[in-house]
Design a protein that fits this description.
By secondary structure, the chain is mostly beta strands. About 0% of the residues lie in helices and about 55% in strands. The chain has strands at about 5, 10-15, 20-25, 35-40, 45-50, 60, 70-75, 80-85, 95-100, 105-110, 110-115. It is globular, with a radius of gyration of 13 Å. The termini are far apart.
Length: about 120
């Protein structure tokens, strides 16, 4: 059973930083492509970042709106992925979800709220 648990969200002023965590069970994060997505009120869910499996190079890719400000990483020993968010903007306000495609379907965490005040 795949379980993804996000944490680390909160309220931050514009220009500030937050680090989100996604603790996984039922899968090994180093063997899977892991992703972060976000959904703002009234908007569709948006892809934020992915990190490939170790065998695939372990590289991270980012959406244009966060490139240069966000960094995704992985701690294999903790089976956890992270999203370091810097220079946050009010438009980054959203619920952030961790996700993995495994056994034929997309799995999602419960999400963590990030609110950036201007």
């Amino acid at each position: 059973q795949v379980q993804l648990v996000e944490s680390g969200g909160g309220l931050v002023q514009a220009g500030g930083s937050l680090r989100l965590s996604c603790a996984a069970s039922g899968i090994t994060v180093s063997n899977n492509v892991m992703g972060w997505y976000r959904q703002a009120p009234g908007k569709e869910r948006e892809w934020v970042a992915t990190i490939s499996e170790v065998s695939g190079g372990g590289n991270a890719d980012y959406g244009d709106s966060v490139k240069g400000r966000f960094a995704m990483s992985r701690d294999n020993a903790k089976n956890t992925v992270y999203l370091q968010m810097s220079n946050l903007k009010p438009e980054d306000t959203a619920v952030y979800y961790c996700s993995v495609y495994f056994w034929g379907r997309q799995h999602w965490g419960q999400g963590t709220q990030v609110t950036v005040s201007s």
